[in-house]
Design brief:
This protein is mostly helical. Among the domains are: 104 residues, Phage tail protein beta-alpha-beta fold (3-Layer(bab) Sandwich), CATH 3.55.50.30; 73 residues, no CATH class; 99 residues, Serine Threonine Protein Phosphatase 5, Tetratricopeptide repeat, CATH 1.25.40.10. It contains 23 helices and six strands. It has a three-stranded antiparallel beta sheet with strand order 1-2-4. Strands 3-6-5 form a three-stranded mixed beta sheet. Helix 4 runs antiparallel to helix 5, helix 11 packs parallel to helix 13 and helix 21 packs antiparallel against helix 22. The radius of gyration is 36 Å and the shape is extended. The chain starts with a helix and ends with a helix.
């Protein structure tokens, strides 16, 4: 990795700067290196002409000319030989070019020139990419019109991809298309633009890049990849028929000779058939894929498509189990959705024990909370006792159950269920917040007193801004008072005075 980055940096780092030129006469064949320094508005410009010159001697001449001190050069390639023909360049750029050719870099401080390794021995992967990105940015800034600038942009995009900055990578590739439309690197930029848009799930934009690449009839070496990627886009854009047609054309024009290419095409074809409501054809392709030593990403995709195909065939029990298998290779929200789908399908076919088994395997609180309603439904179907835990419920679920218990005069259980919601003062959407306050006040009437219940409603009245919701809260307070025989106070409560 270090060698790759260094070679790239050195190639782009020596790009010529289009700085103003000053006539100089010495021939490069001269045995004596030429070092000239001049200042323009306080900025130092440097002319260096040398061939196979000792780096140590050349740097000493430069610092002598500047009247500076040379530091940090002990033990660092002092005997290295360098050649240069740099005329009237900014000082730092000239030093960077000369030192970069032997894997070093300059550091300029007031009155001193320090020399150090361009890539520290201890540099980790992240640091290497930071150095590469900075070096490319300097080169692009110094020589935006150089013939190597488009290639530099390609490399910058690759660096940003490795750093996980897909949007930044995309910007570098699109810059090539905008600024260097006649460059030989345009096809590669189009391909990478499409791939980046795919990763960002911008399928229409990706499709446009691949179509433009296919229109460049002379660039045949890119056609195979462009057709395959375009087929992927068409599937994601709900056009499976065109995707299958494109894959058929691709198989005829560029028959797959590598196992991985064959697998990739089958996977896209399987998804396209599934979208055309042809689950059996999809399963047939997936079955061929499964036993062929898939990598992680392809294995996950196969499990997902198989689960969806079983659903289309109304084989819900098989689909439920397939979603569980799929969930084992996924993380985050995708895993949560897969497990919830598996549980719902199991309930549909009466596999209540399967739901309970699945629920008991979960350790993450978020997942247990998400599947808790399904677990309670399975327990109810089996006639098992149901455990209600507000921490495993959504606020809406807790309020719904509490309201049912209040109607059954199970005030203690309702109070226990709602206590956490009230204590945490969750910011709930209306009208759920109003329902929570009403239910809690009903609990307080029985567990505390009517006065405390009314006082609670009065305290939360200011939480509402809309007059309609305030009015509903006032009506509830009045009904509590009237139901408990305090009619005179209820009259005032109807007016918001309580």
């Amino acid at each position: 990795m270090k060698a790759l980055l260094l070679s790239s940096l050195l190639a782009i780092g020596q790009v010529a700067n289009e700085a103003p030129k000053q006539e100089v006469s010495p021939a490069i064949d001269s045995l004596e290196p030429v070092v000239e320094i001049r200042y323009v508005d306080g900025q130092a410009f440097c002319t260096l002409i040398a061939r196979d010159e000792s780096l140590s001697r050349l740097l000493t001449k430069i610092t002598d000319e500047l009247g500076w001190e040379l530091l940090g050069f002990e033990g660092i390639r002092r005997a290295a030989l360098v050649s240069a023909e740099l005329r009237d360049r900014p000082l730092f750029e000239a030093l960077e070019s000369v030192l970069g050719s032997v894997g070093l870099r300059p550091r300029l401080r007031t009155g001193t020139l320090s020399v150090e390794d361009a890539v520290p021995v201890s540099a980790d992967r992240s640091h290497l990419f930071d150095l590469a990105a900075a070096a490319y940015a300097r080169a692009q800034s110094n020589a935006p019109a150089h013939e190597l600038a488009p290639l530099g942009r390609i490399h910058q995009g690759e660096v940003e991809q490795q750093r996980g900055n897909d949007s930044a990578a995309l910007q570098h590739y699109t810059t090539i298309l905008e600024r260097y439309a006649t460059s030989i690197h345009v096809p590669e930029a189009l391909l990478q633009t499409g791939l980046m848009n795919q990763r960002l799930e911008k399928w229409a934009e990706a499709s446009a890049s691949f179509r433009e690449l296919l229109s460049m009839s002379l660039i045949t070496e890119y056609h195979e990849r462009a057709r395959y990627q375009l087929a992927r886009c068409l599937v994601k854009m709900d056009n499976p028929k065109s995707a299958i047609h494109l894959l058929n054309v691709l198989d005829k024009s560029h028959p797959a000779t590598k196992v991985q290419v064959l697998r990739e095409r089958k996977l896209v074809r399987a998804e396209a058939h599934l979208m055309q409501s042809e689950p059996m054809e999809s399963l047939r392709l997936l079955e061929r894929l499964e036993g062929s030593g898939l990598d992680q990403s392809m294995r996950v995709a196969v499990h997902r498509l198989r689960a969806a195909a079983f659903e289309q065939l109304d084989m819900l029990l098989e689909a439920s189990r397939a979603w569980v298998i799929y969930s084992r290779d996924t993380v985050g929200q995708e895993r949560e959705l897969a497990l919830e789908r598996a549980a719902r399908l199991a309930l549909q076919v009466g596999d209540d024990l399967g739901v309970l088994f699945l629920y008991e395997q979960l350790s993450e609180p978020v997942l247990r909370a998400r599947l808790a309603p399904l677990e309670r439904e399975a327990r109810e179907n089996l006639g098992l006792p149901i455990v209600f835990d507000s921490e495993l419920m959504t606020p809406e679920e807790a309020v719904n159950i509490a309201e049912e218990w209040l109607d059954q005069e199970m005030f203690g259980r309702a109070s226990t269920l709602l206590e956490r919601l009230v204590a945490n003062q969750l910011e709930l959407e209306l009208p759920l917040a109003l329902r929570l306050h009403a239910a809690w006040s009903r609990c307080l009437v029985k567990t505390e007193s009517l006065d405390i219940a009314v006082e609670y409603l009065s305290s939360v009245r200011s939480d509402f801004e809309d007059s309609e919701w305030i009015r509903d809260l006032d009506l509830h307070a009045a009904e509590l008072l009237e139901t408990n025989g305090r009619v005179r106070e209820a009259v005032f409560a109807y007016e918001g005075d309580y």
